[in-house]
Amino acid sequence: MNGLPSSMRAPLDPELLRRRYGQVRRRSLALAEPLSDEDCTVQSMPDASPVKWHLAHTSWFFETFILERFEAGFRPFHPAFRVLFNSYYNGIGAKHPRAQRGLVTRPGMAAVRAYRLDVDARMLRLLDSRAGDAALAELVTLGLEHEQQHQELILADVKHLLAQNPLYPAYADTPPAPATAVPALSWQGFGGGIAGIGYAGDGFCFDNELPRHQQYVAPFALASRLVTNGEYLAFVDAGGYRDAALWLSEGWDQVCAGTLGHPLYWLRDQHGGWREFTLHGDHALDPALPVTHVSLYEADAYARWAGARLPTEAEWEVAAASGAGGLLQMAGHCWQWTSSSYAPYPGYAQQAGALGEYNGKFMINQYVLRGSSCATPEGHARASYRNFFPAGARWQFSGIRLAR
Amino acid sequence: MNGLPSSMRAPLDPELLRRRYGQVRRRSLALAEPLSDEDCTVQSMPDASPVKWHLAHTSWFFETFILERFEAGFRPFHPAFRVLFNSYYNGIGAKHPRAQRGLVTRPGMAAVRAYRLDVDARMLRLLDSRAGDAALAELVTLGLEHEQQHQELILADVKHLLAQNPLYPAYADTPPAPATAVPALSWQGFGGGIAGIGYAGDGFCFDNELPRHQQYVAPFALASRLVTNGEYLAFVDAGGYRDAALWLSEGWDQVCAGTLGHPLYWLRDQHGGWREFTLHGDHALDPALPVTHVSLYEADAYARWAGARLPTEAEWEVAAASGAGGLLQMAGHCWQWTSSSYAPYPGYAQQAGALGEYNGKFMINQYVLRGSSCATPEGHARASYRNFFPAGARWQFSGIRLAR
Amino acid sequence: MNGLPSSMRAPLDPELLRRRYGQVRRRSLALAEPLSDEDCTVQSMPDASPVKWHLAHTSWFFETFILERFEAGFRPFHPAFRVLFNSYYNGIGAKHPRAQRGLVTRPGMAAVRAYRLDVDARMLRLLDSRAGDAALAELVTLGLEHEQQHQELILADVKHLLAQNPLYPAYADTPPAPATAVPALSWQGFGGGIAGIGYAGDGFCFDNELPRHQQYVAPFALASRLVTNGEYLAFVDAGGYRDAALWLSEGWDQVCAGTLGHPLYWLRDQHGGWREFTLHGDHALDPALPVTHVSLYEADAYARWAGARLPTEAEWEVAAASGAGGLLQMAGHCWQWTSSSYAPYPGYAQQAGALGEYNGKFMINQYVLRGSSCATPEGHARASYRNFFPAGARWQFSGIRLAR
Amino acid sequence: MNGLPSSMRAPLDPELLRRRYGQVRRRSLALAEPLSDEDCTVQSMPDASPVKWHLAHTSWFFETFILERFEAGFRPFHPAFRVLFNSYYNGIGAKHPRAQRGLVTRPGMAAVRAYRLDVDARMLRLLDSRAGDAALAELVTLGLEHEQQHQELILADVKHLLAQNPLYPAYADTPPAPATAVPALSWQGFGGGIAGIGYAGDGFCFDNELPRHQQYVAPFALASRLVTNGEYLAFVDAGGYRDAALWLSEGWDQVCAGTLGHPLYWLRDQHGGWREFTLHGDHALDPALPVTHVSLYEADAYARWAGARLPTEAEWEVAAASGAGGLLQMAGHCWQWTSSSYAPYPGYAQQAGALGEYNGKFMINQYVLRGSSCATPEGHARASYRNFFPAGARWQFSGIRLAR
């Protein structure tokens, strides 16, 4: 581990790493392809960031944590970028305030593209000159996984931005994929006992998935698939948002304040029906698709209404690791809220230095989501992966899997 | 259990219950004895309540959940009190907004005293006429435990109110007890394994202590006593509030905003030294006393600085239940922050009806404190008792016990 | 003038001054008579103050500006009161934050009553020993006029406090006086020309009424009486609060935000009719009484709807000074919003020292009200009197007189 | 007047109007020339608007108030633009919320340029086909004057946006013009008497400059030039921001809150000296230039410190109309705060319809500035011109001229 926030026991083939570097970095730019420079500049809320910022910050990560350490005669692309594109690493020094990321119109997209090209050229030279350096390979892998996390954020943040536009423009011109038929929901049972929790492989994982440790899990059952829009609509129509008894107190406060009444991107049409804003523009709500963009409060209220509950993250991991064939939509559709607060595993050790800020300092007032979403890059997540957001966050692709 | 949020398997002797009713109810009034009617009326912040409100609400609890159900020909003392003194029970109907409790100057303290007398007379008649009624006895016991919780809140809330007064008036005229010598801090080790967690006796407990269940606990050690003011002062003097690496992100935000820089009631004297506001007025900071009125952020930062961590609530309970002789100050000094978020135990079932709102709906974004404090009524807490507050709360008597 | 914020050219008879001192000071206590100590302690919003604070601050005024200067061997009643009961005089030193006046439960009402007794005894001794001292007499007169201003505030602030109580308690047990018949509204015309504006007599006035100066006033007409509740109700029923064209932009923002929809103390009854909370409790809205507790936004919108406008303060003063017999309700009912912003008269000179803060520093973003209200002490106001509040203030007894 | 918010008695030559239309419209685009599309998209605060919005809204004005009324077979360029680019005209229907103007990334700058081209082509056709139509000419003139107002706002808003960028980018690459020597400040005296105030010519003016009317003005003197940076710096260095006695109460509150301590764009350099951010980037503070970007609070405090006061708007207009030769910098440098609140002139009549919202509804809690600034288009302002902003506004080019 070498004090790194990642685990990668087997050495990575240098050529593979080089190729993977190119693939991941190109995909970030590809995500910005359908967007104008103006789209890439604006910040729609403090929780979201401009696409331009994501593109720059992920390059800053390589420049700051790798080039500065390994490159001979290192000179920053632009001294001001060290501050402008630092997200939250106090150990690196000053950082530009998060809520003001959208006010920086210069450097513009052209300059950020140049920044990426420059970092890429230097990174590839470095990978050539130090092929086989394990410490470098670990850091590069971390940088790529980090960039993949931002790729998902790019899609969530762009969706939020476009949703603020009264014209509801589409990110992608293609129509959304038609939903296939919804299989009946069944319950997959699991016996209790002591389970190993946390990453057990020899590839990459984040530090928050470690150390692998034992937990006692009581017998439980997991729903075979995610809750659909149609099922959630039945909850809405049954007055789910009007019955205090279903809600956690904080969620009910939001309902009473009028800020919570349906999933984030649901829209009323003129006839009282529902539409949904998607990356493909707004469309009639598809009852067969998994409900998404719900808060933990909504997920919890729905589960209570349905006579069920949300899984703990240990239950989810036990089920996922079991390879139980009957479990559908565990990955690639929506992140799945668990009832577990985001906390360090027993024996968790934060590494020294700025990279130690990657995960540990956020382990408060956040809840774990498991699985992955339609916006998660291929191959990024795994059964032990821990995503986390505050209970009220809705702009991520978050959905509901029931347990009991 | 009868669907009640309490567990009390052994029948309670009717005469004992009657006597206990009188004792608990009298103690609430005794706590208000040193206060003027004006002191009892004012609300110092939305989180705190006026003493008058506490005195009325605890009576409302008996009137609403017991008299209304059991008393023949029930008529409320005053119809408006049903709304005025409802804390948060949506199932009961409307409630007066929490932040406006201090604006209700009428009914005044005289009327609230009359309310208490009336409820007490009716309750005692009821206890006489239905001696031996187990359902009644359970509810009365819950009402008394509930009142004891408010007795602790009365002291915390009054302390906060008086602290807003630039004259720093004392609640009690007596000087604070001199601290005894501080024993050296040692570490008490505990082996790992599957442990039974949750209430196991046959007396009263709250629903959140149930059901008793199994958890796997890894080996750990607990500090033999609480962190002292003197130790915490060393952390302050060493720049603990200036080192971002020690802090959870949310805590550091508060430090940067200038709202977190020392325990809540510490005051600078004119010579740069420290005083502390207490229920006995303000005094020179006593380095031998346990540090108190700290947030979870501060407790966590201190622990990190000290090369330790906070215990989980399971660890704390295992240690407390072990009766380990070397553990001092487990009860009666300060509530002890744990790193565990407040969540339902596996199999937790909220009862039907309004009393189901007692605990369950608050199980979000709160953290568990264990033990009890100098403000906790004698006999109220136990090893399985779960107190809970948001991570930033500081006006409770909350302190720090280290683990590792 | 001696640099005082008042004008009093004729010497005041010492015996008269002594008697007047007693009368004014007693009346303040009489206003608190129907109130409990609890009523006197609470602050219902930052703009309002506790009655106790008013009683203490008016005494502080005499102690600070008179006793401290004239009394041999002056010693303050309580050193902390200098800060606690300073309203806004930066020249005097620190002041307790306005929004926290309601948090100071000690000193209680008993102590404040003792403070008043002490100040009164010392003031009367001083008046005896320096009978005929013109500088003293001027300051005492200012202190008494100041106290009368606070007497009106006491009633406005108590009304606001009691209105927050869902039981709508009455300040006074007596029923409100029945309204007499409403005379038809007529228009009293005034020719234009250069007019003398400002105080012209030889009694007391505030510095903001000086210097008397010339203004050119165009011909205008003033309504013979105030707008009634019945007339204002017609505006409400006609959709006055739904027609943007009637409103100043800031007022319309409040309407859209849902915070402005009827006069402050109007209440809907269960049948869709209107009641009004008054110092006598809540009663059916009396259509014959002048509408009161309206903001300048509402007064202006009503005037526009009625095809009229609000008078300027110069017009109002010209009319009042003319003694025009046809003008009813110029004093003693409601303060009358004018369209004039509160600004210094040409040549206005603020006096040196802390008393210079009495008026001048508030001459920004406030609008002038003329006349006097049912809450104004007998003999306090006059034709040149300038009251002033922000355009949105509604808790004062403010009404509408039309002009054109 | 025809109910128009403008006065233009003499018919305008059609060819002149056509030429003027082209000039004004081209200048708006020229102002955007140094900016990237990204610069034009972002909104730096709710009070400011994106440049793109200004460019679209000024076209919307022509489309909505002229084309829709006069063009045969009118069809809007884009139906959604009616809402998107409506600033505040409730009479026109819905409007996009002001604070969210920066979230609309689509339409982008290319689409807005196309919108301008389309409106221009249609307007020019209309001007050809209805040459000599007086009603049309008046409206077109109003539209051009309106666009010129937005041209000044474009510069103020861009300056504010670029000032949020930690790199302090320059709007214009050229260096700022060197200040010429500062002439000694002298006082120009004016005798009192009845003066005619308001527009008296036969060209265009805004409705708020009408009707011309009489006011009595007492004798006064005006400073011969604006207050310089150097003079204001002396005020700062003398502790002007630390002396409560100099400040209006609202201004002092801002000082105490730490949000007011120097003119908006002054920056401390590393050696304790001052720099200033300008449209040419940041430069050492030039002591010879007029101080600018100050609030009315600061202007008033400076005047008090200097033993002077601010002029009333009537005084300013009397002086400007007098053509007094000794008065420098009356136009083209900074708008000059007056002590006059923005109020309707006696007899002011708002026109019917949506254009009536142009001025009247803002006549509350704003103060008048006279003159014009370096950002005001050539020929736009005049002696009777009334600019207005809230007392705390600082992002306009606002400065100080003393009176006494």
Automatic annotation (TrEMBL), chains A, B, C, D:
<dbReference type="InterPro" id="IPR017806">
    <property type="entry name" value="EgtB"/>
</dbReference>
<dbReference type="GO" id="GO:0052699">
    <property type="term" value="P:ergothioneine biosynthetic process"/>
</dbReference>
<dbReference type="Pfam" id="PF03781">
    <property type="entry name" value="FGE-sulfatase"/>
</dbReference>
<dbReference type="InterPro" id="IPR042095">
    <property type="entry name" value="SUMF_sf"/>
</dbReference>
<keyword id="KW-0408">Iron</keyword>
<feature type="domain" description="Sulfatase-modifying factor enzyme-like">
    <location>
        <begin position="324"/>
        <end position="404"/>
    </location>
</feature>
<feature type="domain" description="DinB-like">
    <location>
        <begin position="22"/>
        <end position="154"/>
    </location>
</feature>
<dbReference type="InterPro" id="IPR024775">
    <property type="entry name" value="DinB-like"/>
</dbReference>
<dbReference type="InterPro" id="IPR005532">
    <property type="entry name" value="SUMF_dom"/>
</dbReference>
<comment type="pathway">
    <text>Amino-acid biosynthesis; ergothioneine biosynthesis.</text>
</comment>
<feature type="domain" description="Sulfatase-modifying factor enzyme-like">
    <location>
        <begin position="199"/>
        <end position="323"/>
    </location>
</feature>
<dbReference type="InterPro" id="IPR034660">
    <property type="entry name" value="DinB/YfiT-like"/>
</dbReference>
<protein>
    <submittedName>
        <fullName>Ergothioneine biosynthesis protein EgtB</fullName>
    </submittedName>
</protein>
<dbReference type="InterPro" id="IPR016187">
    <property type="entry name" value="CTDL_fold"/>
</dbReference>
<dbReference type="Pfam" id="PF12867">
    <property type="entry name" value="DinB_2"/>
</dbReference>
<keyword id="KW-0560">Oxidoreductase</keyword>
<dbReference type="InterPro" id="IPR051043">
    <property type="entry name" value="Sulfatase_Mod_Factor_Kinase"/>
</dbReference>
